[in-house]
C-alpha cells in the first residue's frame, strides 16, 4: 500500500502501556515521531482534497488517506491526545474489525499497539 517502514524499528510496533494516559497532542506527536510513523500522518494530511461532484453535498466533502491505526486497551486520555492528528485512527482492542485493519479490502495498514492491548489480543483470540 505504499508504506515505507524503513524508519520503524520493529514490526509489529508495540509501545509501552503508559501511552494510554497521554492527554496532550504534543505528547502524541513526539511518540509518533519517535517510532518513525510521522510520515504517514504527513501523507494523510497532504491528501485532504475537495471531492468533485454531488458527494460534497452529501457530507463526504473531503476524502483523506488513512494513517496509522493505534490500538489500545484502556482509554485514560489517549483518544483526546490523538484526536487532532489527521489520518490517525484509535481503536479499542475489543472492537477490532477487518474494516479498520484493511480499509478498502487492502491488507497492510500500519498498526501501533500498546503493550496491554498486545497482551489482550492473546486473551481475546486465543486458540
Topology record:
Layout: E1 13-15, H1 25-35, H2 38-46, E2 69-72, H3 78-82, E3 89-92, H4 98-101, E4 111-114, H5 115-124
Parallel strand pairs: 1-4, 2-3, 2-4
Tell me what the structure shows:
The chain is α/β, with parallel strands linked by helices. It starts with 12 loop residues before the first strand and ends with a helix. The chain has helices at residues 25-35, 38-46, 78-82, 98-101, 115-124, and strands at residues 13-15, 69-72, 89-92, 111-114. Strands 1-4-2-3 form a 4-stranded parallel β-sheet. Strand 2 (69-72), helix 3 and strand 3 (89-92) form a beta-alpha-beta unit.
Shape category: globular
Major sheet: 4 strands, parallel
Task: Summarize the helix and strand pattern as letters.
Answer: EHHEHEHEH
Sequence stretches where pLDDT stays below 50 over 5 or more residues: none
Number of H/I helices: 5
- Beta-strand residue percentage: 5-15%
Question: What's the count of strands?
Answer: 4
Strand order of the largest sheet: 1-4-2-3
Structural class: alpha/beta
- What's the alpha carbon Rg, rounded to whole Å? 15 Å
User: How far from one another are the termini?
Assistant: 30 Å
Amino acid at each position: 500500500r505504499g508504506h515505507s517502514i524503513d524508519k520503524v524499528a520493529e514490526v509489529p510496533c508495540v509501545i509501552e502501556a503508559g501511552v494510554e494516559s497521554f492527554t496532550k497532542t504534543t505528547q502524541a506527536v513526539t511518540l509518533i515521531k519517535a517510532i518513525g510513523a510521522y510520515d504517514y500522518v504527513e501523507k494523510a494530511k497532504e491528501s485532504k482534497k475537495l471531492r468533485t461532484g454531488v458527494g460534497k453535498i452529501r457530507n463526504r466533502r473531503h476524502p483523506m488517506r488513512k494513517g496509522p491505526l493505534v490500538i489500545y486497551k484502556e482509554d485514560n486520555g489517549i483518544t483526546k491526545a490523538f484526536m487532532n492528528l489527521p489520518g490517525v485512527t484509535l481503536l479499542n482492542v475489543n472492537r477490532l474489525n477487518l474494516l479498520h485493519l484493511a480499509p478498502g479490502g487492502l491488507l497492510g495498514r500500519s498498526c501501533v499497539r500498546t503493550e496491554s492491548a498486545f497482551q489482550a489480543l492473546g486473551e481475546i483470540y486465543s486458540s
